Amino acid sequence: MSASAKPWRQFICRACGLIYDEEKGDADSGLAAGTRFEDIPDDWECPLCGVVKADFELYVAVMLPAATSRPTANISARGRGVVVIGAGVAGWSAVEAIRRRDADVPITMVTSCPGDRYHKPELSIALSRGLQPAALVREAAASAARRLGVRLFAETYVTGLSPTSHRLRTTRGTLPYTHLIIAMGALPAMPAALPPALCWRVNDLTGWSRLQTRLSTGPRRVAIVGAGMIGCELAEDFARAGHAVTLTDVLPLPLAGMLPEAAARRLGAGLAAIGVTFAGARTVAGIEPMADGSKRLAMSDGSSVAADEVVVATGLVTDSRLARGAGLAFDKGIVVDPHTLETSARDVYALGDCISVAGAPCRFIEPIAQQAAAIADAVTGRGDSRYVHRQPVIRLKTRTVPIVVHGTPVRDGEWRVVDDTAELLHMQQWHGGQAIATLQAGIARQAIAA
Predict the structure, then answer these.
(1) Domain shared by 28 and 40, yes or no
(2) Do both 291 and 232 map to the same domain?
(3) Residue 155, in any domain of the structure
(4) Helix or strand or coil: residue 434?
(5) pTM score, whole prediction
(6) How many helices (H) and strands (E) would you count in the chain?
(7) Which tens digit of pLDDT belongs to each residue from 61-73?
(8) For residue 229, what are the contacts with CB-CB under 8 A and spacing of at least 6?
(9) Is 272 exposed, middle or buried (0-12, 13-18, 19+ CB in 10 A)?
(10) Which residues, other chains included, contact 38 with Cβ-Cβ below 8 Å and sequence gap of 6+?
């Protein structure tokens, strides 16, 4: 069979979940449509997270036989079934993992959003690439539901959970379940001084789409509150798209809570080079709407920032109402067994942004596939995978100064410079006489092993 006659394949990044489609290629990294995976150079990098070709693996979507590739029958009539709360990366990953093991178990998905499948990490780099909302959707919710045999309740809200009776209450009625999987994500943290009606939160495709519409009319003044990973990525993306960006933070340097000073300064210089104004060591005391539709941010040091749009990127929090109302253990997230992902209630599991492991939230894309596999094995009884939590590699998607951190840095560790040139800052953190973490800033090539 000639190369041109072979079916197109897809390959998924094990680190961030990006899918490379041979038919579409990747124009941003110079790969024309129709570029076969084997023809990609070995040092090609994931356009989102920076890992190389070796970190991709073949991806084959689950396709049910025609007889079962339709929304499932009523769960109560079948006497068993799985209900999934949430249609983000975690929710759909759980469904796919279950379907790889069991084509027949009824699955119902409940989500407050439309449920379309998209790759969330792309939201922080999409504007400068000129992407429209439709281009970010990998698969429409209805198509995914048909392919995976899921009964989808889109734009439906969960109102309560009764673990003892195995029932979930929603705005579309009460759903019985044999197993429940909570994948409801996390919400943007909103400081009291920031009125939600005057601010944007870019945490899902719906919110990003509305902001993209406002920014598509021409150059705007954008104030981003919070210089963490998302805030820094959005600042660069908006600046590259032609907007005047002011990035504010309570700390004196961007990402200063995560990075050593030398790396934070390098990041700040990179952002400044593309026109981002950084206003550090101050908080937003209040926001005043102006007569022309703009906003004035009053800062704690007496200064002010004028903006047409205000974006809040001050971190994420897990909504505790469902968990606490159902009596589930909660500690900065829904507490789960570190190996099975089962909550404190029997037959109720959770994964993704909404969980905490050993008292720490788990808000990275990389562990979700393994979390989904462990839950799917437990729910179907067709495997014995156990989740093993490891600190994911931290990758900042800023093209001016891409940053990669391996290992688990600690607050009282000592950062030592290994190499410091105009192109690369390489550091190690030492603690207890051992190197426990490595950092590289300013180069987007393959990560240095810890």
Answers:
(1) yes
(2) yes
(3) yes
(4) strand
(5) 0.88
(6) 9, 31
(7) 887 775 444 444 4
(8) 255, 258, 394, 396
(9) middle
(10) none
